[in-house]
Specification:
Pfam families: 2OG-FeII_Oxy, DIOX_N. This protein has 369 residues and is α+β, with helices and mostly antiparallel strands. The protein contains ten helices and 14 strands. The chain has one domain (67-363): Sandwich (Jelly Rolls).
């Protein structure tokens, strides 16, 4: 299957560029490469919440659940119950036995590494514009005084192909497009199976969510978190939840950075080779009427080694209306908690704010009587 890098028509281009604005910022990778940092630039210093492991949590609350994808795909009822627990109690889980060939994962990692190894002037050819979501740089930068994250990213819309913009694809890199194409197709297969299981858990048949919301769109964000001499002062990514249906993360095998909020504490998500970290997004929280909540998470940095991650976002089309499923509403036990909203309106509201935990979900919550 060949997914072309398209330049969409004027209407489509305008639509995809309308999620929100983000100001251009310096490359953190270049800041680090250009000399010894005697002090951290003021714009990157955050008032970090402490992240120690609390001693009062049992071991079972220090590791996210593990779900066997191959068993879900076979319709295993016990594994489906485990998924239900993971979604209700954590909103995050490791996914193993996903069936994607190691070669595909390796080629994607190599493609990401090759991009961030390019000289700055070459990477700048793919820099995102102020009013666009895709490209090289950072998103959610709304003012010249806003605190910045200690990271660089390349974000690309991948599926459907007409959402792509060729000017942001570094096609001069050998095998980059091939690696991303193959990876994105495999991610979409995983997404379809996960969506079918989410559908069953929310009281529908396997194709219920697909009938209601259509095929999920896909975007891939490739992150680079440089080393930092004072990791206690910076954040690789500020605390936030995802607006997505769900998100698939291929972590760095060697470097821990992702932390999630669980029972009032920040819990590090340790890398598990050949697995994906999956997390619930706001869209699923809304559709499940609060049964499966999106979870606040952040990324920490370190002194010793840079970290890379590959994040695949799955989300509805902009024109798709999202709201609680009728199967998840019960007037006496679980009344409707969220209003209906088009996904495009919700995501534009997200891009109009800096990342602030789960503040956005309040935008669609109904006031309790």
């Amino acid at each position: 299957m060949d997914l072309k890098v398209e330049n969409a028509g004027a209407y489509k281009e305008e639509k995809l560029g309308s999620w929100g604005k983000s100001l251009p910022v310096p490359s953190v990778q270049e800041i680090v490469m250009n000399g010894n940092l005697q002090s951290i630039p003021e714009r990157y210093i955050h008032e970090n919440e402490e992240s120690p492991i609390p001693v009062n949590l049992p071991d079972s609350d220090l590791e996210i659940p593990v779900i066997d994808f191959s068993l879900l795909a076979k319709g295993d009822e016990d594994e489906l119950k485990k998924l239900d627990f993971a979604l209700k109690e954590w909103g995050f889980f490791h996914m193993i036995n996903h069936g994607i060939r190691e070669e595909v994962l390796h080629k994607m990692k190599e493609a990401v590494s090759s991009f961030f190894e390019l000289p700055l002037e070459e990477k700048k050819k793919y820099a995102k514009q102020e009013n666009e979501t895709q490209g090289y740089g950072q998103n959610f930068v709304l003012s010249e005084h806003q605190k910045l994250d200690w990271s660089d990213m390349l974000y690309l819309f991948t599926i459907p192909p007409e959402n792509r913009k060729s000017k942001f694809w570094p096609l001069s890199l050998p095998s980059f497009k091939e690696a991303v194409d193959e990876y994105s197709i495999e991610m979409q297969k995983i997404a379809e199976e996960l969506s079918a299981n989410f559908s069953v858990l929310m009281g529908l048949d396997r194709n219920g969510l697909k009938r209601l919301q259509g095929e999920l769109n896909q975007g891939i964000r490739m992150n680079y978190y440089p080393v930092c001499p004072r990791p206690d002062l910076v954040l690789g990514a500020s605390p936030h939840s995802d607006a997505t249906t769900f998100t698939l993360v291929q972590q760095d095998d060697d470097v821990t950075g992702l932390e999630i909020r669980h029972k009032g504490a920040w819990i590090p998500v340790k890398p598990m080779p050949n697995s994906f970290v999956v997390n619930v997004g706001d869209t699923t929280e809304i559709q499940s009427n609060g049964m499966y909540k999106s979870i606040e998470h952040k990324v920490m940095t370190n002194k010793e080694k840079p970290r890379k991650s590959i994040v695949t976002f799955l989300f509805p089309d902009d024109e798709q209306e999202i709201g609680p499923l009728e199967s998840m509403i019960n007037d006496s036990h679980r009344p409707r908690m969220y209003r209906n909203i088009k996904f495009g309106e919700y995501i534009r509201e997200l891009f109009a704010r800096k990342m602030e935990g789960k503040a956005l979900i309040d935008f669609v919550k109904l006031q309790s009587k």
